[in-house]
Amino acid sequence: MPLIDADGVTQPATGEWQGSVLSSSYIADYKPFNFVDGEGVRCSLYVSGCPFKCPGCYNEAAQSFRYGKKYDEELEERIFADVAQPYVAGLSFVGGEPFLATPVLLRIARRLREEFGDEKTIWIWSGYTYEQLLDEGADKNELLDLCEVLVDGPFIKRLYHHDLAFRGSSNQRIIDLRASAQEGSAVLWESGRRDTEEAVPFLTPAAPRS
Questions:
Q1: Chain-centre distance of CA 25, in angstroms?
Q2: CA–CA separation, 31 vs 41, rounded Å?
Q3: Which pLDDT score is estimated for 1?
Q4: pLDDT of residue 32
Q5: pLDDT tens-digit map of 5-61
Q6: How far is CA 177 from its chain centroid?
Q7: Is residue 59 within 8 Å of 48, Cβ to Cβ?
Q8: CATH at 157
Q9: Could you tell me the pTM of the whole model?
Q10: 80, burial (CB in 10 Å: exposed 0-12, middle 13-18, buried 19+)
Q11: Is 51 helix (H, G, I), strand (E, B) or coil?
């Protein structure tokens, strides 16, 4: 039985949710050339399926793993044609829950690295925290390694503020994944400036209840 914390967010046990089992490879939306999902001009892929079920979720329809359309090669070629434009900084993976869409997103991320190296960045959002993801298995860890920036943690309605850049609630962190891998702990990213985690502490969600 999944646990639901005091903010109404469903919390998984370690290893309970697997993309290889849950993902139906559906895409909720694709939005090229935007400025809202990370720094610079970006192309954003919104995947379907999210069991966190955060109260107040802005994309509630995409909680279903069969919302939208199946991912296909036509969409993939469109994405890579768009990302190849010189003014595009990179690709953003939004949800739904991207770390439960690894059958699709690993394919895209691997290809992006093969074609562009580190020229294009990948931003990714998750209801998991960075620390949870490190314990979640090979597919999630590979996806972390292929990305530059993670916005982590569930949306918590009581911590919402409209002025927060790239995130909805103040518990969520913007994490520099390359620096974090070197440090062995979460290093915060802020418009090209790296801070230690202590500079902006992570707000721990309330204890779960069954």
A1: 16
A2: 11
A3: 61
A4: 98
A5: 999 999 999 999 999 999 999 999 999 999 999 999 999 999 999 999 999 998 999
A6: 12
A7: no
A8: 3.20.20
A9: 0.90
A10: middle
A11: coil
> Token pair 């909805």 is at which residue?
168
Integer Cα distance of 10 and 116 in angstroms: 37
Determine the structural domain holding residue 11 and report its residue range.
Answer: 3-209
CA angle, 13 then 17 then 23, to 5°: 170
Separation of alpha carbons 94 and 125, rounded Å: 5
74, containing H or E segment: helix 73-83
Please give the structure tokens belonging to residue 119.
Answer: 């020229």
Short-list 89, 81, 80, 83, CA closest to 41 = 89
**pLDDT-based confidence at 210, cuts 50/70/90?**
very low
Q: How far apart are CA 47 and CA 43, in angstroms?
A: 13
Chain-centre distance of CA 189, in angstroms? 15
Q: Report residue 52 as tokens.
A: 């966190």
Q: Buried b vs exposed e over 36-47: b needs ≥16 C-beta within 10 Å?
A: ebbbebbbbbbb
Domain count, the chain: 1
* Residue 82 Ramachandran class (φ > 0 left, ψ -120 to 50 alpha, else beta): alpha
102 near 54, Cβ under 8 Å?
A: no
CA 175, 176, 178, 180 dihedral sign is: negative
Report the candidate in 124, 119, 84, 131 with the shortest Cα–Cα distance to residue 104: 124
